[in-house]
Structure formats: structure tokens, C-alpha cells
Design goal:
Layout (H helix, E strand, L loop, with lengths): L5 H16 L9 H10 L13 H24 L8
Helix pairs in contact: 1-2, 1-3, 2-3
Amino acid sequence: MPTYSDDDVAHLARLVQLATSDPDNLRLLSPRDACAVALLLNRLDQLPQPYSHPLAAFELLGPSGRDMVLDLYDRRSQPDATQDA
């Protein structure tokens, strides 16, 4: 059973949309959120310091954050994924 809610995933999806519209918005996010969004967008160049290595960023997310990122990644990679996921 996930340790996060659908609201948490929806919030992360909104952050991804925010960063997609303007990558500079990543600088406005907390390091944890910025890492999650950069990983989801495959923008490793946008990982904040000192988490510039993907494994350091993944570690910062913690177990529930990692699960949520992987869940949203799976949702976004589905062929019928909606624009807001």
C-alpha cells in the first residue's frame, strides 16, 4: 500500500507541468521537489546542488518520494496517459 495519496501525485504532476512550461521554475521548488521533477523530466542538468548525481537525488526523496516518482513516471509513460498526469 502506497504511503502517499493521489493528491500527492497530483501535486507532483502540477509541479512537473510548471517546470515544463518554464524550466527556471525548478529554482523556486524545494530541493526535494526539484529533484523529483528533474528526475521525472529527465533533466539531470537541473538537479540542485548538492544532489547533482541522480542517486543522491533519489536518496533525498526517501522511500515514499521514490515510490511516488516511480508511480507518476509509470502513469506518464502509459500510451493513454492524460495531459494532467
